[in-house]
Amino acid sequence: MAPPAVVPAHGNDAAERLASMADVTASDGALRRFLHGLPGVDAVGLEARAAALGTRSIKTTAKAYAIDLAISMIDLTTLEGADTPGKVRALCAKGVNPDPTDRGAPKVAAICVYPDMVGTAKAALGDSGIHVASVATAFPSGRAGMPVKLADTTEAVAAGADEIDMVIDRGAFLSGRYLSVFEEIQQVKAACRRADGSAAHLKVIFETGELSTYDNVRRASWLAMLAGADFIKTSTGKVAVNATPPVTLLMLEAVRDFRDAVGVRVGVKPAGGIRTTKDAIKYLVMVNETLGEEWLTGEWFRFGASSLLNDLLMQRQKLSTGRYSGPDYVTVD
């Protein structure tokens, strides 16, 4: 489903791309007209498509490949008030070597922590190649003034965060103050820049369970991508409804349409509620069918999960030994 033809392709330069969108983002009214001009979502069709993709059967060598791929896409996460440096170091050790009995198991993509734990995670991971992601902007509520949100981001980047997971102001979005949300994302994006000119990647979390409608999810996806998001992410994992297959499929389709219209690739991260290997494979099938094999990498697709890793490891061992392990085969995060 193609979006309104409002922009030409301009390659991958973000500044040039955003300059070409000046007419769309010049005012709250212009942005509102654009977002409300996006095609409406056929809820029945979307849910049927997601359900159909979830019935694909993946077996033997293809399943083994999918399990390793899913492991390599995980943002292994601890976001609790009781987090300690010891817990973060243990999580980093698990990310580097998920299965101590099998050195062939792949590493995870990133370790995700609060800003004050970024330094601990960075030191523990060393030169492993695993990224450090940090939530920011008053996660998970997003209820704070911009100075606080920017300080949150700046602290994490200064401590060495490779990626920032920000939450949008859902109240502003649901009130129709789209330009306010757009400018907030732009400001956080600017705060991701380091002194040497490089920048942490920005993941923008919508908390889709609070956006009420599929149309709102599509609008939030386009708004975030226009503002410069490197990834769009479903959820914080802190509410009752987190990632679902239809919502993730809708976001994948938005990313596809944005790439076709603007020529820029954006990643997708479903987070929260994805706990089993079967669930993860369903999402990988959706990515392949919607965006193609080039998106089947941790550079463009992530799982925000912790318990998922344990199930993937047990299923991986089942494929290699022919038997299931007990619950003590993996560590409890």
From TrEMBL:
Signal sequence annotation: none
Source organism per UniProt: Streptomyces varsoviensis
Keyword Membrane in record: no
Pfam families: DeoC
SMART domains linked to this entry: DeoC (SM01133)
Name the record gives this protein: Deoxyribose-phosphate aldolase
Enzyme Commission no: 4.1.2.4
Class of enzymatic activity (EC top level): lyase
Family indicated by similarity: Belongs to the DeoC/FbaB aldolase family. DeoC type 2 subfamily.
Superkingdom of origin organism: Bacteria
Catalytic activity from the UniProt record: 2-deoxy-D-ribose 5-phosphate = D-glyceraldehyde 3-phosphate + acetaldehyde
Pathway(s) this gene product operates in, as recorded in its UniProt entry: Carbohydrate degradation; 2-deoxy-D-ribose 1-phosphate degradation; D-glyceraldehyde 3-phosphate and acetaldehyde from 2-deoxy-alpha-D-ribose 1-phosphate: step 2/2
Record key words, sorted: Lyase, Schiff base
